[in-house]
Amino acid sequence: MVNMVKVISSIIILFFLGNFSLNAQNKRVELQKKREAEAAARGFKGFIFPIKDSVFHVNLDEIEIIRHYPFKNKREEKKYSQLQVDVLKVYPLAMVVGSELKLVNAEIDSIYNDKSKKKAYLKWYQSYVYHTYIDTLKTLDVRQGRLLLKLIDRETGKTPYDLIKTYRGSFNAILWQSAAFMFGANLKSTFDPEDDAMIEHIIKRYKAGEFN
Hints:
- This protein has eight helices and two strands, in the order ααββαααααα.
- With about 210 residues, the protein is mainly α.
- It has one domain (about 1-40, about 75-205).
- Strands 1-2 form a two-stranded antiparallel ribbon.
- A hairpin with an 8-residue loop joins β1 (about 45-50) and β2 (about 55-60).
- α1 (about 1-15) packs parallel to α5 and α3 packs across α8.
- The radius of gyration is 21 Å and the shape is globular.
């Protein structure tokens, strides 16, 4: 189990462990605040009162009505219940991966586009992510670890194998894939909305706020 956690955490972290850079952290915080402000600006716009027209207008977000999952039998219902527990624990982590990846790419493009600066930043970044998320990753069991790999593909559009290949090279991707196989995992796991219909249904309910 410990080795499985190491495999999963390495996929989340993606980068080499390096020294802490205060300058990198400060710029990262600034960019994060900017992204949060932009996200907030896309939210509720408030009430719009027309000057000449007497029609009252309000901007509201769309609400998706999610129907109950069509279970074929008790076995499917039991499987769904277990998946719900796992998804509620793992999906927030997959969202973090997607968010962190977007932030990293934005920082590399706008701040650390120089090769040496990029390398130093990526070394610092692994240390940051490791200390931030490793305690949570340690709580995952093997089944949840496999689910996380699949959900990373859903959130980023790339499998963990592809991410490692992009940021650490083909050799490391092959090395980690071999290690993952030893512990029953596959870094090339993909998410298919049809094949993984139960998972997709639970995620839609999660986004709709049913579990708040």
